Predict the 3D structure of the following.
Amino acid sequence: SGSIVGKWKEPDDDAVVQIENKGTYYEGAVVEAPSHPEGISTVIFKNLIYDATDGVWKGQVYSIEKKKDYNVEIKMSDPASFTMKAKAGILSKTIVWTRVE
């Protein structure tokens, strides 16, 4: 379950998010963002906790555009990618992130 640690990016953005273990939870902040440097150090993934029963990480994801947190579930597909499903009411958005390093 610790394989979520590392640097990740989504397909349509050049920002790199680094996910780290913060003790009882995991957190992901922007460490590189060439096209919007003001976003550096913004925490994107918050309070991620592994749910062994469902085999997913649960927490919140922050939308920089909307300036809001959404509930999120992350499923590791393989060591190099994860699928993020963000929920806002009845709407949900799924994005596959890939490992940078």
In short: The chain is about 0% helix and 60% strand. The radius of gyration is 13 Å. Residues 73 and 84 are 6 Å apart (CA to CA). The first strand starts at residue 6 and ends at 9.
